[in-house]
Design brief:
It contains seven helices and seven strands, in the order αβααββββββαααα. The chain is an alpha+beta fold. A seven-stranded antiparallel β-sheet has the order 1-2-3-4-5-6-7, sandwiched between helices. The N terminus is likely disordered.
Length: about 210
């Protein structure tokens, strides 16, 4: 199987429909972030220098709000909350999207801060105080998620479940993946995926 995060599309309505079913059937909960929390996620920690550099680009101004969601449920028998916030930034070269994803799994928090370039383009992250592009081509997702020495065929269902969420918009893709992985009876529970943060880190090539 070949998976390409940038090129493979998933319809918006399908994502929304699945998420609605997931939360109803399995007890997961999703709510919109409060404005203060939305702003905090995009302006503190690793997100702060990223935003500062984006706003220094020619013609840069804050634009429309993107994804603003909190997902909560149980993953790997741990209480888990995932917050996703994204905001568009207008520049002379097009509309960028700043994305922050914070995963709190059993009290252990992991934060991922990214920028997505226009037209479903590549992703970037602050590395050594520079916004650097992230390379996604040629990733062996199965090995990344389950370990190169232990890739049982039964876990292909888990991988398919995640990659069905692939969308050119990284905030929407991550929201969909989180919704599916918070299903405690899913195939992924039996396949050695250690954490939601691990899944997102793998797929966004960080």
């Amino acid at each position: 199987m070949k998976f390409n995060l940038i090129c493979r599309m998933s319809a918006m309505c399908s994502i929304a429909f699945f998420m609605a079913i997931s939360f109803t059937a399995f007890g997961q909960k999703t709510v919109q972030l409060a404005n203060t929390r939305f702003n905090q996620l995009l302006t503190t920690g690793e997100a702060a220098p990223l935003r500062a550099k984006l706003l220094k680009l020619p013609g840069a101004t804050l634009g429309r709000r993107g994804v603003s969601e909190t997902h909560s449920g149980t993953y790997n028998r741990k209480p888990t909350t995932v917050e996703i916030a994204s905001q568009f930034i207008n520049t002379r070269d097009g509309e960028l999207e700043q994305v922050t994803i914070q995963v709190n799994e059993g009290g252990q928090a992991t934060t991922i801060s990214l920028v997505q370039y226009p037209e479903g383009g590549g992703l970037g992250r602050i590395i050594n105080d520079i916004v650097q592009p992230l390379e996604q081509a040629g990733i062996n997702y199965e090995a990344c998620l389950f370990g190169s020495e232990n890739n049982p065929a039964s876990c292909e269902k888990c991988l398919d479940q995640i990659t069905e969420c692939v969308n050119p918009n990284v905030a929407l893709a991550s929201s969909c993946m989180v919704a599916r992985l918070l299903n405690p009876v899913g195939a992924c529970v039996r396949c050695g995926v250690l954490s939601l943060a691990q899944v997102l880190t793998c797929f966004f090539s960080i």
